[in-house]
Amino acid sequence: MALISEPLVLFLDEPTLGLDVIARNELWDIILSLKGRVTIILTTHYMEEAEVLSDRVGIMKDGKLVASGTVNEIKALTGEERFENAFVSVIRREEK
User: Fold this and answer.
1) In this structure, which of 40, 45, 56, 95 has its CB flanked by the most CB atoms within 10 Å?
2) Distance from C-alpha of 58 to C-alpha of 43, rounded to nearest angstrom
3) Which residues pair with 43 in a beta bridge?
């Protein structure tokens, strides 16, 4: 429904929550097909989703932006090879 008006900016809040694997994959394909034509701001708790779909990632803790950059920049910042581990590292650093 959000794409009917052909927006320039699209906000998606947890769009794949509760979807089965096939529906999630189809939605990912749609989101990827919009790259370069639509600015998409997507919130998710799924790090794999953030890694696959995002050009840039912002990590929030307690309503504050605590890290931002590309997936590779955040992995380099934390020294982690897996993005999910990098996310956990950023959050744990903020808890100290």
Assistant:
1) 40
2) 9
3) 13
pLDDT bin (cut points 50, 70, 90) of residue 3 is: confident
Place of tokens 């744990």: 92
pTM higher than 0.70: yes
Conformation bin of residue 89: beta by default, left when phi > 0, alpha when psi is -120 to 50: alpha
Are 11 and 34 within 8 A, CB to CB? no
